[in-house]
Structures are given as C-alpha cells and as structure tokens.
Amino acid sequence: MHQNRENSIKSLGKRGIGNSEIVMRRSGFTLVEIMIVVLILGILLTIAVPNWMKAREGARAKSCLENLRSIEGAKEQWAMENRKGSGDAVVEADLWPTYIKGSSFPSCSGGGTYTLNAIGDPCSCSIHGVN
Length: 131
Known about the structure:
By secondary structure, the protein is mainly alpha-helical. It contains three helices and three strands.
C-alpha cells in the first residue's frame, strides 16, 4: 500500500500535476537550527558555570570552617584532660587520633594548611582564615 502511494506521488511530480500540493519532507536539522541550539546552550552555560563555581567554593569554605571547629573542640578537650592552660602549645600528634576521629588529621578542602596555635588562640586556615 505504501509503495503504491509513493509511485503515484512520483508520477504526479513528473507530469507536473499538483506540484503545489505535494510537499516533500526531509528528515534532520538544518544548520541554522543546530546553530540556534548551540547558541542557547552557550548562553545557559555562561549563566550556570559561575554560579556553580561560587557554590563549590562556598561548600569548600564551609567544610574548612567545620574542620576548624572540630580541631578547636579537640584542642579544648585535650587541654582539659591534660591540665593545660591558655598559651600552652599543642601539636597535631596530641589531637589525632585520640580526640579527632577519622583516618587522618582533617585537611582543608581548598588546599590550605591549618595552624593549630596555642591553647586559647583559635586555629586558622591559610586560605579561609580563622574559625
């Protein structure tokens, strides 16, 4: 049935009868349509990528500050249990693994380094600042 219809359309086209009524439909996209899609994607990316980068940096900063709070809490607990006062020095080995749980001492997700400072002084990060 489908074959007969195609033959009749081809024969009408050859004879010139009803050419204005016959519309040949091609599948696929034109170059202009593809370029419009690429343009729209480019616009969306220029909007989304900076916001995504800001959110990622914000998450890193929050993670770093949470690590600093954990370290500060461990310093206080260590100081109380070892009868240390304000100004006494503390090192990483004093806190981890006894007072800070995990497979390793916390590290800054932004690549910074933590400075423990003495008891009573807040610990700090080289990138994200003080707790």
